[in-house]
Amino acid sequence: VSWLFNPTRSEITSLDSGNIDDILNNADVALVNFYADWCRFSQMLHPIFEEASNVIKEEYPDKNQVVFARVDCDQHSDIAQRYRISKYPTLKLFRNGMMMKREYRGQRSVTAIADYIRQQKSNPIREVQDLEEISSLDRSRRHIIGYFEQKDSDNYRTFERVANILHDDCVFLSAFGAISKAERFSGDNVIYKPPGENAPDMVYLGSLTNFDLIYAWTQDKCVPLVREITFENGEELTEEGLPFLILFHMKDDLESLEKFQQEVARQLISEKGTINFLHADCDKFRHPLLHIQKTPADCPVIAIDSFRHMYVFPDFSDLSVPGKLKQFVLDLHSGKLHREFHHGPDPTDVAPGQQIQDLASSPPESSFQKLAPSEHRYTLLREKDEL
């Protein structure tokens, strides 16, 4: 069969536990093919991936500029688990060793993959030629602006590394020399312009050569604590492998969203990394609401989707009760929500003399389970077609 994998055709770097960190950390951009030999689609992709590598290597001959690599997930299940690989083949992009949130989902063709890499190698920072440009920015977007004395500097190189990783989440701009002088009253300067015409700028006060510090600061500004889930990013969010805490609200109900954001920040900041905080348009996501026997008329509604079941926060008006939302999330982690759906309230939660009811019904099934990692390929959300 002509498309069977021939390992001698191209210099694709094979990754294992001994070399993966060194190779990825030293690569400006790395595209990694996570595959399984028994998978027909993996076999079909091999020659395409190799040819795309050959094309790109002619344009970027420096071995650290672009790396095409592969991982045999059967032989290296520890690596597959580390990067939450659950379908084959999966193409993941890395920058300086850091895996990007969005995997490659384009056409599996030489041209498409090569074009994708060229796009990833394009400069993520727009250079400002006149500070007047700053006053006409689209204030619906998040902006990170760096003012530097010169481009050839450690400060700018660190800024560039951060922009390479987070340019999908923020717009990055820079100004140099005489143009930036007015904004460099105390040396090179990086600021964040949040969305909103009247939102005040925030200044980065740490070391501009400390990548970890400036990356953490920029990520905090560019990636909101509460993100919107849409039909376009639902699969991507699911791939992060964390359960969802979702506020379903009408699009024009910004008051409920603001309350939810405030309480998540107040009660759940310590849970960041264990659960994804999201909000969704009730009207667009009618189908998930049906899973919990709700309609847009019931919004705002808060629910947890564990990818196994959905659990409803009892009363939105209790949102601001100190600790109430946090306990809801803690009850998910402890298994209490699942247990009580099947067996009624825990004995410790039942008043003296009150009989425990054995619930025969199961909790509503997850609305996003079909997006969650499994041994099969992902399918796309179908709610738009079902409305």
TrEMBL record:
Chain positions covered by the region annotation Disordered: 342-373
PROSITE patterns noted in UniProt: THIOREDOXIN_2
GO biological process, one term: protein folding
UniProt name for this protein: ERP44 protein
Gene name, Swiss-Prot/TrEMBL: Erp44
One Pfam family per UniProt: Thioredoxin
Species the sequence originates in: Aegotheles bennettii
GO molecular function: protein disulfide isomerase activity
InterPro entries, per the entry: ERP44, ERp44_PDI_b_1, ERp44_PDI_b_2, Thioredoxin-like_sf, Thioredoxin_domain
Biased composition (Polar residues): 354-369
Superkingdom field: Eukaryota
